[in-house]
Structures are given as C-alpha cells and as structure tokens.
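Attaching the record inline, Q. Sequence:
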Amino acid sequence: MIAVKKIGLFLFLILIKFSAVAQCALCKAVLESDDEATVALAEGINSGIIYLMFIPYILMGTVGYFIYRHYKKNNQTEEV
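Structure, as predicted:
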C-alpha cells in the first residue's frame, strides 16, 4: 500500500505543470534592456537568486546535522 502511495505521489509531481519557465524569459528580457532603471532591478533579481540558491543547502545541512546528532546519541546509549 505504501508503494502505491509513493508511485501516486511521484506521478502527481511529474505531471504537475510549472509555469515558472515562462517567467524566466520575461526576467531575462527586462534585464537585458539598457535602461538606467534596470540596473537596480538587476541587482535585486541577482540578490534574490543568490538567496534562493542558499536555502536548499541550509535546509540539507540542518537535516544532516540532526541526523548526525541522532545517530551519535543512539551510539552513546548503546555503549553505556
């Protein structure tokens, strides 16, 4: 039963339609224009990209730390 749920979730995630790709083309077109006002906009978008890039690494590091701490705690209780 669990395998059926996993397969269903996998298919749902694969078949879901994301419209974020279209937005990337619009951002690129705006940032490639030579206006003075787009310089601040470009810096803001670059900062946002860097911010979004670090979030998964912070989350994975946090989860990894808690897993490490859990295993270390279990090993200490088994040795005693």
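The mean pLDDT is 81. The chain has one domain: 18-79.

More tomorrow.
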